[in-house]
């Protein structure tokens, strides 16, 4: 169980797992933490992409059946998640979608399913939302310290950084690009590293819940 595979939707999330999440979780007790791109992201070196749930479920099922002791999780954005994913075509929250993903996998694998080995995580609403956990570190890391005040205004308009919404024009990444057109998604990984997991989990309760659960699982080993 001390092996963790994180299925991600793109190269940004993969880099976040490798550079930010992996060192923390290894220190917490995992002996192996790695990322794997889902679906069409495998053929795209610049931008990820999520296929239909039936296709993604096949990838997840295959891994869970191949490795009967490792832990599998996901890190995909709620923003633009395909409508055929369980609950996404409704008003379900990311937490509700996670519950439905888990239930769907249980139905798919039946007796072969070990509920404790699959821990789906859907980012609320987008990876870039996490970066508003520390607007000072974020703005300085991407070389735009002059934007700290503007980033803080965005952050302060919502209860948490995760609540920055998922409209095509006002999603976190869109807001950043409106202020800094040269921003690249991988810049966000460096910013997340500078901000640190402690600050992100303090500001982002949905993310913190996922990290708490991952830590709790390895602590039982």
Radius of gyration: 17 Å
Question: Mind telling me which CATH architecture of the largest domain this is?
Answer: 3-Layer(aba) Sandwich
* CATH third-level topology of the largest domain: Rossmann fold
Please tell me what the overall shape is.
globular
Order of helices and strands: EHEHEHEEHHHHHH
In the CATH scheme, the class of the largest domain would be Alpha Beta
Query: Could you list the spans in which at least 5 consecutive residues all have pLDDT below 50?
Result: 41-48
Number of strands: 5
**Annotation field: number of helices:** 9
Total number of domains: 2
Which structural class do you get from the secondary structure elements? alpha/beta
Mean pLDDT: 92
Helical proportion, percent range: 40-55%
Beta-strand proportion: 5-15%
What distance separates the N and C termini?
7 Å
Write the layout of secondary structure elements.
Elements: E1 3-8, H1 11-28, E2 32-37, H2 53-66, E3 71-77, H3 94-109, E4 118-119, E5 122-123, H4 135-141, H5 148-156, H6 172-179, H7 187-195, H8 197-203, H9 205-219
Parallel strand pairs: 1-2, 1-3, 3-4, 3-5
Helix pairs in contact: 1-7, 4-5, 4-7, 8-9
Write a compact overview of the structure shown.
The chain is an alpha/beta fold and 221 residues long. It has 9 helices and 5 strands, in the order βαβαβαββαααααα.
Written description of the protein model:
The protein is of the alpha/beta class. It has two domains: 3-125 and 204-219, Rossmann fold; 127-200, no CATH class. It is built from nine helices and five strands, in the order E-H-E-H-E-H-E-E-H-H-H-H-H-H. Strands 1, 2, 3, 4 and 5 form a five-stranded parallel β-sheet that branches. Helix 1 (11-28) links the parallel strand 1 and strand 2 (32-37). Helix 1 packs parallel to helix 7 (187-195), helix 4 (135-141) crosses helix 7 (187-195) and helix 8 packs across helix 9. The longest helix is centred in the N-terminal third of the chain and has 18 residues, at 11-28. The radius of gyration is 17 Å and the shape is globular. 39% of the residues are buried.
């Amino acid at each position: 169980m001390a092996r963790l595979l994180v299925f991600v939707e793109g190269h940004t999330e993969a880099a976040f797992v490798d550079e930010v999440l992996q060192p923390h979780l290894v220190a917490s007790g995992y002996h192996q933490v790695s990322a794997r791109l889902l679906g069409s992201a495998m053929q795209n070196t610049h931008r990820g992409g999520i296929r239909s749930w039936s296709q993604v479920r096949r990838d997840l099922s295959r891994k869970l059946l191949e490795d009967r002791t490792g832990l599998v999780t996901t890190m995909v954005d709620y923003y633009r998640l395909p409508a055929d994913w369980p609950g996404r075509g409704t008003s379900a929250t990311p937490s509700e979608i996670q519950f439905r993903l888990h239930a769907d996998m249980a139905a798919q694998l039946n007796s072969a399913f070990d509920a404790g080995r699959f821990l789906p995580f859907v980012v609320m609403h987008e990876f870039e939302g996490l970066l508003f956990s520390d607007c000072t570190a974020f703005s300085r890391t991407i070389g735009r310290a002059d934007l700290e005040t503007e980033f803080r205004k965005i952050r302060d308009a919502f209860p948490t950084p995760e609540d920055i919404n998922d409209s095509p024009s006002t999603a976190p990444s869109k807001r950043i690009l409106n202020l800094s057109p040269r921003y690249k998604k991988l810049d966000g990984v460096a910013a997340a590293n500078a901000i640190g997991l402690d600050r992100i989990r303090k500001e982002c309760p949905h993310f913190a819940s996922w990290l708490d659960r991952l830590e709790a699982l390895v602590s039982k080993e």
